[in-house]
Amino acid sequence: MSLRPVAHRYAKSLLETLPDEATVARVDGDLSGLLATLRVETELRRALVSPIVPLERKRAAFRALGGGRFAEPTVRFLEYLAWKGRSGILIEVMEEWNELLRARRGEVLATVLSAVAMDAAQADAIRALVSKRLGRTVVIDHKVDASLIGGFQVFFENRVMDFSLKGRLQRLKEKLHAA
Predict the structure, then answer these.
(1) Domain residue spans of the chain
(2) DSSP secondary-structure letter at 119?
(3) Which residues contact 67 (CB under 8 A, 6 or more apart)?
(4) Residue 95 in contact with residue 106, Cβ under 8 Å?
(5) 3-state secondary structure of 114
């Protein structure tokens, strides 16, 4: 069973309880920093999501992670997740939070796979291409996939734009088999 619907409800509840845009921005900064940390610090992530770790230790860890810098609503929300036994879906909640904020801002997430790392100019060109097609602001999530051989693929809103050498070779192969 997917935990996304549950994570979505928690993220939506957090967003709806915040009093103003300044607080939303502050909590967003807190959660973005925490998400980046948890993606790198696997031991910390395991401890925070483990049902074996007592609630009080998780609460202390959330407070320590913020180092006094997290906004009070962020700390209360993280403690609430731990209290409800939902710290195991913390990363999913933060990803849903990001989705809700993008929707609120009218932004679209586009995942770009490229054969090699892109520079800022290339990322901007792809962002402009997708933005023009959708008529909305696009946020780029870039990943490298050497199997593409060359070029790139863009995934957004259940669509794919394939400008990779691997894709071109596959389409050529299909045409030759059809002939």
Answers:
(1) 4-103, 106-178
(2) -
(3) none
(4) no
(5) strand
Strand-pair partners of 110 = 140
Is the separation of the CB atoms in 87 and 59 below 8 Å? no
CA distances from 57 to 43, 66, 72 (A): 14, 14, 18
Q: Output the pTM of the full model.
A: 0.77
Please state which CATH number belongs to domain 4-103: 1.10.520.20
Instruction: Identify the band that residue 30 occupies on the pLDDT scale cut at 50, 70 and 90.
Output: very high
- Check if the beta carbon of residue 47 is closer than 8 Å to that of residue 61: yes
Strand extents, DSSP E, the chain = 107-114, 137-144, 152-156, 159-162
CA distance 64 to 87: 16
Is the separation of the CB atoms in 109 and 46 below 8 Å?
Answer: no
